[in-house]
Design the sequence.
């Protein structure tokens, strides 16, 4: 299983990536590889796999999330924004996976 995030620009720092990684380590009870897509891997935890963003795309803000689809894989991939707070166990999320389908979690607390 791959658990991933995207960090681009200066809105979020390595601290946000490392904090998300620690939350996943605490709240996910199965094996996973944590991946961060970024143009600046400075001070990101060494156990996090870095995939460099191709800056030739010349994207901005949340558009970088589209690069997650550049290299399709058969592995389950769970993506989290860097401002997410994981308070409870998330292992059950992998049971919602269907091959070749994109799933999105609704933010029920937002109108």
Sequence:
């Amino acid at each position: 299983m791959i658990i991933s995030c995207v960090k681009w620009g200066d809105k979020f720092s390595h601290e946000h990536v490392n904090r998300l990684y620690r939350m996943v380590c605490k709240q996910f009870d199965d094996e996973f590889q944590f991946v961060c897509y970024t143009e600046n891997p400075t001070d990101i935890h060494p156990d996090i796999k870095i995939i460099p963003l191709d800056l030739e795309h010349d994207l901005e803000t949340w558009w970088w999330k589209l690069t997650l689809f550049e290299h399709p894989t058969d592995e389950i991939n769970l993506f989290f924004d860097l401002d997410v707070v994981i308070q409870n166990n998330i292992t059950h999320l992998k049971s919602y996976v269907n091959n070749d389908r994109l799933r999105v979690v609704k933010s029920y607390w937002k109108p």
The chain has a mean pLDDT of 86. The two ends are 31 Å apart (CA to CA). DSSP finds one helix and four strands in the chain. Helices lie at 14-27.
